[in-house]
Amino acid sequence: MKVRDVALVAGKELRETLRDRRTLTVMVLFPLVVYPLVSLLMAQVMASHTARGEARRSRVAVVGPASITEGVRARLAADAKAFAPDALTGDARADAAGDRAAVESGAVDAVVEVSPGAHGGTRVRVLWDEARDESRQAHDRLGGTLGGVLAPGCGPLFALEDVSVAPRARVGGYVLSKLLPLIVVVMIMLGAFYPAIDITAGERERGTLETILSAPVSRFDLMTGKVIAVATLSTVTGLLNMTSMSLTMIQGIRLVGATAPVAIPWTRAASMLIVVVPAAFLFASVMVAIGAMARSFKEAQTLLTPVYFLCFTPSLIAGLGDWDLAGAAAVVPGVNVTLLARDLILGTATLGRTLVVVASTLACGALALTLAARLYDSERLLAADDGTVGLGAWVRRLLGVGEARAAAPSVALRATPGQALALFGVAFVLMVGVFVPLQKWRLGPGLAISQWVGLLGLVVIYARGTGRPLAEVLRVRRVPARAVLGALLVGASAWIVVGVLAQWLVPAPRELEESMRRFVVPGDGSRGLVLSLALIALTPAICEEALFRGAILRGLAGGLPRVTAAVITGLLFGLFHLDLWRLMPTALLGIALSLIALETDSILPSMLAHFTNNACLVILGYLGRDRSVDDLGRPAQLGLFGVGLVVVLLGAACLRGTGRKARDL
Amino acid sequence: MGAMPENEHGVTAQHLTKAFGAALAVDDLSFTVARGEIYGLLGPNGAGKTTTLRMLAAILTPTSGSAALAGVDVAREPQAARRQLGFLTGSTGLYARLTGRELLRYFGRLHHMPEATIAERTALLAGVLDLDGFLAKRCEALSTGQRQRLSVARAVLHDPAVLILDEPTVGLDVLASRFLRDFVRAERDRGKAVIFSTHYLAEAELLCDRIGLLHRGRMLAEDTPAGLRARAGGASSLEEAFLRLVAGLTATAAPEVKA
């Protein structure tokens, strides 16, 4: 890496991007002008609304025996600011239904029904309309006023006074910690969004890609320079937002009328800088990597928007949940920076944790940067007319109508990452919208239908749409005996390795393990071993493999480096299972299965490995030996992990090089 | 810069082949360009010109075969090879939000030229290419002709030994085209090896010392303009010669296809 070239590229990109109005708007105008304006406006509206409500007197009817109502009326009339006296006398009631109607129609804000209660007390019933501001207010006021009514001659039973011991700055920190981390992380992402597209896809669209590619600068230096420029811009966006947000939120709280002034813990807020810079680098790298894949501004936006939300989701989960920054949470990108930001504001962050978060974030960023450099080098960017077909033509072809068919009835479409992602999107929507409800309705039949009809059907339609035989889409090829052995070994041991690893990094709650167990072995004995094997081992081994290791993996591998394609397939596979706790184990398994399919250049070994893996779990379940990993001691866990790993590696050695030499055609 | 041993060729392409999937864009292409020579690389759309030029600039990696610029192997030392190269094609745009001067300085620095040399060359080229009036303007504000002249300056700023010019006169008026051809001739006379690619066969005939005719990724014929015309049975123009040569190829190839 030549630092000089990197600095040169970064400087030029920064200069050029800063001359773009769009970027400047997002970066400066929003945090400095729009947010404070909008939030102050909202605070003022709320404050004036509150003030107007407070100025208005509630109209309350008191009904019941005159002996009691008089006392209550007098009590309310004493609070002349809160209650309008004219309504107090206006007793329009005929019966209980009349009271209700009076409140519903808005004739009065509330009706207080009083009647003699037990032990000489009084029963009070307040009728109010929860969906009307005026009525809500009347309800609140009545609670305050009537709650203080005492029986003659009695003192209060409890005198309640609440005292907050938190210093003002800590209250400020607490308030900020609820929202600021999330907002800052999101703003860093937003700050990276446009520059990342502009610097990659924009470069291609404006026709300067070839100019820079013909200059004597290495791809990696070029990409590093670009990422640094984007990261700088997004850091500035993050910082501006952080400052502006802190001030606005505190101002807003003051305006709405908090009881005591709230102070901003400035030093702690500033310590969030530790998070901002690595996070900016990470998001910049990821977005530049994605942008580098796109061939136009529009395509980059299309690709980046889901990624933006994908990046945003962990931060949202972290921001809303009451999570500890420990274990896996410290290394999950997005989650860790959000949690660390929160801890920094609260002043509870430790040095060790901070280092882990910063280091893992930088490492992920470096990984994305390397990927970006490789993708930017891709010849796809320059060879636009290499047989890739737009979505419209693809759909026409799928439906068998229109010019696409007339023009090239026999030419098959090449598998591309775009197709793979679209396919996953469809499968995911089906999963959420159809398969999950189906399985809730009847687990067994639901599972069978979603897998055989849903997933496999989807692959069949996809193959037909792209004009390729199913066997070719899936890559059903005979493999040597060595590959079969390898797949068996990996299948028989991967679940151990992944299971122990999951227990160490993201231990699932007990209840979840229990429900998983009931899923495998129904408590009522309604499903025998053979049926369970067919449903839980054989079915996904064929259907899920066909979709993920067949169509999706081959599509991704059509435009991405092999390992990248395997990792993405694995992650999508993990996501598909819609389970936060099983995300990591299923993703790891998915990556392993993808690597098997690629290495052997056939789907059969990955099907076999998937079957073996699930079958082991089912059989253990039926033998009653599926103890929770947690119940085993550390030494037993380590032993299992070691043995499992050795077998996995043995399997990998058997699989190595069993695909034919010419891998890509 | 730009110095190279007397006996070295400016450009050497040996058995260059590039496949995109199953399609062969360039098929076993070999040619050389001497220093002080303008070599015309001609052919219809899809003949493989752009792919060939991109392989020479180390932008695309050949499926097989090799290329060298001023004796530097393109595959082995892509950065060093690019330093010997001035590359101008229809798709080498300019950074719209930089001014002409900033743009030249950026590329000068990427070529690791000393600041003084960048200033010197910029001043010189501003005179020759008539850039003075608009060097302070942003590229987005320039006319097509101004942009093209600035692009030429960008390509030759580091005084490279090899110049690749792909369709440099597209969109230029007669006067500007003439001006550009004169500039290319002057560069040749300074000892540069120039590859000039164009659709305008008449322009190639005017300018090129030697011409290679590409057709479907292969070298159809290679000779001086006069030689090519003679080869095609005394064609009156290069266009005529090209049409006859292609027709001859399809006539001989047809029986093979049927068999």
CA radius of gyration of chain B is 19 Å
Which sheet architecture does the biggest sheet of chain A show? 3 strands, mixed
How many E-type strands of chain A? 3
Number of strands of chain B: 10
How much is the average pLDDT of chain A? 80
Q: What name does CATH use for the topology of the domain at 11-91 and 161-223 in chain B?
A: Rossmann fold
**Which strand order do you get reading across the main beta sheet of chain B?**
6-7-8-3-9-10
- Runs of chain B with pLDDT <50, length 5+? 1-7, 254-259
Order of helices and strands of chain B: EEEHEEHEHHHEHEHEEHH
CATH superfamily membership of the domain at 11-91 and 161-223 in chain B, which one?
Answer: P-loop containing nucleotide triphosphate hydrolases
Helix percentage of chain A: over 70%
- Gap between N and C termini of chain A: 33 Å
Task: Note down, in words, how this protein is organized.
The complex is a heterodimer of chains A (665) and B (259). Helices cover 71% and strands 3% of the residues of chain A. Chain A is mainly α and 665 residues long. Chain A folds into three domains: 3-39 and 167-381, no CATH class; 55-143, 3-Layer(aba) Sandwich (D-Maltodextrin-Binding Protein, domain 2); 391-655, no CATH class. In chain A, strands 1-2-3 form a three-stranded mixed sheet, sandwiched between helices. The two termini of chain A are 33 Å apart. Chain B is of the alpha/beta class. Chain B is built from nine helices and ten strands. Chain B has helices spanning 49-56, 78-83, 100-110, 115-128, 144-156, 174-189, 201-207, 225-231, 238-258, and strands spanning 11-20, 23-33, 37-42, 64-69, 72-73, 85-88, 162-166, 193-198, 210-215, 218-223. A six-stranded mixed sheet of chain B has the order 6-7-8-3-9-10, with helices on both faces. Chain B has a four-stranded antiparallel sheet with strand order 2-1-4-5. In chain B, strand 7 (162-166), helix 6 and strand 8 (193-198) form a beta-alpha-beta unit. Mean pLDDT of chain B is 86; it is low at 1-7 and 254-259. At the A-B interface, helix 1 and helix 9 of A face helix 2 and helix 3 of B.
